[in-house]
Amino acid sequence: MAVICWMAGLFYLPRLFVYHSEQAQGMESTEQIFEMMEQKLLHFIMNPAMIATWILGLVMTFTPTIVNWSATWPWVKLIGILGMTWFHYWLAQRRKVFLAGKNTMTGYQLRVLNEVPTLLMTLIVLSVVIKF
Fold first, then answer.
1. What is the mean pLDDT of the segment spanning 14-31?
2. 108-118 b/e with 16+ CB inside 10 Å = b?
3. pTM value?
4. Structural domain boundaries enclosing 54
5. What's the rounded Cα separation, in Å, for the pair 73 and 50?
6. Is there a contact between 95 and 9 (Cβ–Cβ < 8 Å)?
7. Are 7 and 14 in contact (CB under 8 A)?
8. How far apart are CA 44 and CA 118, in angstroms?
């Protein structure tokens, strides 16, 4: 459940940024609504979900016989998870840029970046399913 909540946030927060950059710039009341939505999503859903995902993932990792670290797939999965975590923190930094009124990214650029979690999720899932 934690992974699903985290992924939902990683998909939705960049989309909020797209709408924030395209629809709300210069409209104070609309900007405040987006800022509140972004803040609540990040602090009340995404951060706890990421922390729970990491804790539970580490518990599984250190449970004997679940992960064969001599195979390639757990390392690929780990790289994907680290990428997902980096993206999470990058989104948190983007939110601070929006709060400061200094966003320079276009809606198109944010839409492209919105695909990052999809690519990372695909890498993670395929590494586990294929187990190469």
1. 85
2. eebeebbebbe
3. 0.90
4. 2-130
5. 21
6. no
7. no
8. 22
